[in-house]
Design goal:
Number of helices: 13
Distance between the termini: 61 Å
Strand content: 5-15%
Order of helices and strands: HHHEHEHEEEHEHEHEEHHHEEHEEH
Radius of gyration: 22 Å
């Protein structure tokens, strides 16, 4: 697909249009039986049984990307694999935000790396905090977000980061509000929907049908990961999904060999039908343990407020978050203090482990 005169190419940093991506040995050539074009060692002395570890991995593994495309229901050319969705955040900011000229929008409380990545790149950070909805949940303030995007007197917002399901809240952001945002923003900015926890939401959720969203909204970018439900946090494998022209822009910026071969192999295997079935079975157990924890917390007097969760963690408002975190840590159980987040004073976040880990947690928590 041509990027000439498209709004996505107009949003990218202007100088990227004239940049030719680095043509690594793997990217520029294929085939052959004797590989002497990449300055590689002929073998790996420390691991002689690994007969391919001396070779650079693929720039983008077609096998891995096709496996994820099949899983997500999108086309191969709509997928970029990277070192976790954290790298995708960096790539988007580097591709679309001019330092000291452009901005990213966040909606606190939210995932902290959006702001940190923007700040380290020199992009401004615009915060449109979540607002309390009629049902008590925190949701997008679409009116305020759109007004800021259209405000030409201030730094131009190029990227809008929306985390759904939300980290650290645990709830699913209202799909109607996301769609309202997409429609109102139009071609003025890209909306980046971070779906790290998407596997935990109900199967009937419209946010699962991301291929339909991408077809309707070319300004949408979706971030996914294998770190959560797939249990592959150590492998560092994530994906950016979007229009082919956007993926091509990111391919200019990404490193020559973003994923190591063991990650590619492990991630591809995890996306096989049997492995997906095993992931779904484990996910069901995680949800069972989450409901067990939620039920237990209702009987703990110090649990002042328990936030609804569709994820593999629970957010709880307590009298003294630091004291509770320290109490659990002394007993060998680590939970997280979220009190530094806007609007989450004295809140702790508990991840859902296996049955034995949750047994230990419930033993350690104060009565």
């Amino acid at each position: 697909m041509s990027t000439q005169n498209s709004f996505i190419s107009q949003l990218q940093r202007a100088h990227l249009a004239d940049i030719t991506p680095y043509q690594s040995a793997r990217r520029s050539m294929s085939g052959g039986s004797v590989w002497l074009n990449a300055n590689e060692a002929p073998q790996t002395p420390a691991f002689p049984q690994q007969n391919d570890w001396n070779r650079y991995p693929s720039f983008q593994s077609n096998a891995l990307n096709q496996a994820y495309a099949d899983y997500a229901g999108v086309a191969l050319e709509q997928v970029l694999s990277c070192r976790g969705s954290d790298e995708a955040i960096e790539l988007l900011i580097r591709s679309f935000c001019e330092p000291r000229e452009d901005a990213v929008m966040i909606t606190t409380p939210t995932y902290g790396m959006y702001a940190i990545s923007a700040a380290t790149h020199g992009a401004d950070v615009v915060d449109c905090p979540l607002q309390k909805a009629a049902d008590g949940s925190l949701q997008l303030d679409v009116e305020a977000m759109v007004a800021r995007v259209r405000d030409t007197r201030q730094t131009r917002v190029k990227l809008i980061f929306v985390c759904s399901p939300s980290n650290p809240l645990g709830n699913e952001v209202d799909a109607k509000r996301i769609e309202q945002l997409l429609e109102a923003v139009g071609q003025d900015a890209l909306v980046v929907l971070d779906q790290a926890y998407i596997e935990f939401v109900a199967a009937e959720s419209s946010q699962r049908r991301i291929a339909e969203w991408l077809a309707r909204y070319p300004q949408l970018v979706v971030l996914r990961t294998l770190s959560k439900a797939f249990g592959l946090a150590a492998l560092r494998c994530g994906f950016a999904l979007g229009q082919p022209e956007l993926i091509e822009i990111l391919r200019k910026v990404i490193a020559p060999y973003p994923l190591p071969e063991p990650t590619i192999a492990g991630a591809t295997q995890a996306l096989s039908e049997p492995a997906i079935a095993e992931m779904q079975a484990q996910l069901a157990q995680t949800l069972k343990q989450r409901e067990r924890l939620l039920a237990d917390l209702t009987n703990r007097s110090w649990a002042k407020a328990i936030w609804p969760s569709v994820t593999n963690f629970v957010l709880v408002n307590v009298p003294d978050a630091a004291a509770l975190v320290t109490h659990c840590q002394h007993a060998g159980v680590l939970i997280r203090n979220q009190s530094s987040q806007r609007g989450l004073g004295q809140c702790i976040r508990i991840s859902i482990g296996n049955a034995a880990e949750m047994d230990r947690l419930l033993e350690v928590l104060p009565a």
